[in-house]
Description:
The chain is of the alpha+beta class. It folds into two domains: 3-224, Nucleotidyltransferase, domain 5 (2-Layer Sandwich); 235-415 and 428-479, Nucleotidyltransferase, domain 5, CATH 3.30.420.40. The chain contains 15 helices and 23 strands. The protein has helices at 45-60, 100-107, 110-113, 124-134, 136-141, 148-157, 179-185, 206-212, 226-232, 286-296, 302-309, 349-372, 391-401, 413-426, 449-476; strands at 3-8, 12-18, 24-31, 34-36, 41-43, 68-73, 79-81, 91-92, 144-146, 161-163, 194-196, 201-203, 219-221, 241-246, 250-256, 268-272, 275-281, 319-321, 339-341, 380-384, 405-408, 438-442, 484-486. The strands form six sheets. A seven-stranded mixed beta sheet has the order 16-17-15-14-20-21-22, sandwiched between helices. A six-stranded mixed beta sheet has the order 3-2-1-6-13-12, sandwiched between helices. Strands 8-5-4-23 form a four-stranded antiparallel beta sheet. α2 packs across α4, α9 (226-232) packs across α14 (413-426) and α10 packs antiparallel against α12.
Amino acid sequence: MKGLVINLGFRSVRAIIFGSDGRILASSSRKVETFLSSEYVEQDPDEWWRKGSECLREVLGKVEDIDFITVTASAACVTPVDEKANPTMRTILVSDKRADKEASYISRLDSFKKLGYETSAYYTIPRILWIKRNRPDIYGRTFKFLSPNDFFIAKLTGDFVIDELNATKYYTVNNEYPRELLRDLEIDEDKLPEIKPIGSMLKLSDESAENFHLRRDLPVVVTTYDAICAFFGSGVREEGDACDISGTVTSVRVLTRRDIRPDESRIFQLRYRDWNIVGGSNNLGGGLIEWLLNNFYMNRTYEDLEKLSNLSSAASGLIFLPYLMGERAPLWDDKVRGCFLGIERFHNRDDMARAVLESTGYVLRSLIEAIEDNGIQVNRIYASGGLARIDLINQIKADITGKKIYKLMEAESTALGAYCLAREVLEPGFDASPLFKIEKEYSPRREVENMYAEAYRLFKAAYRDLRRFHEERYEALLPRGDLRGVHL
């Protein structure tokens, strides 16, 4: 069964066609531009659609007779559109921080407190409230507030829907929107997409079928957002199996039948079938390496960086805090920023590169600790995404966490997971396990265990001791300029 997956990441939009054996038959990608300021992080949905359409035509020109289409993209992004699914403003991305005051206001409302959620500027409702307060013209012209998944589905089908897991970013309870809270905020529920179960099937619009030369009865299967698709595309299948998907951001999730503590706000829990999916995502994973290459090693590749940084000693005494855009799980700190600590005269560029690579291991360990603090044991970690291509990083992560890392042969775990979720609906009894193959295994090295334990202690202490500095810097020095476009 051949399936086409549209996968929108922070850096690019991709179209990938998988064959029945999970092998990629055709793929195409285009970079997308991100608009940044101190607090705003935006992308242009019209650019998504234009470049996504180019990718679709390219792969469909190589593979005929696909069996379905599905879409996966980041959660907790807000894309306001009109009745024809045309954007009324640029998308507010997941790492955008503008709705901090709105989140604080919502947290004090009785209608919110009874929902059982923690709140932050990360969630969708505070962002919609920000638009209502600050851009009432946009709010008035908006027909629906969609996620990126929903936007592509609306463009393909004309239907305005959202899957049940994506909808939790709107504070849903039992797959229903929080009507009392929406009334308190004077947000019109009719402006939110219809909630659909994962596996729901929609039909292409006549316009899409004609534009892409597809049959009109081709099913468009509703799956879910990228972190969850990547989870199912990483081969997890047993209690304690975890995935570390490091694209631009790093997403860590574990499969368990246990529940997290009700007061645990550092990580998420989602219920799917008979299992819980527990974990969270940070703000930058592979994005750290892109930053490093762009600013320290221009015209170098991932492979070049691995060779250079491998020359540096793991015991150089240099610590890097990787919070270039603040941090989501497990810190939830919008004001913290990155810094090198312990720089000495003998340190050079390669030492700094090594410290950046090591910081990805510290971040992974902090997410695992937040999970294990709830009594959930993480046994195995399956690594995928662009960052997993670097053997040195995989070994560093094994050394710092003390757990085995299994590198997947298929790096496109997000798209593969979306393919598997959709295929399970169309082909009852489908067993995805043969599609997941291990390319390499990394075991912790005991000779560096104590050194990394001390380094991790200092890493956590550095964040703790510098919190006040970052808060004061944010208020006193951070410029509030216009958004500028960059390719991340």
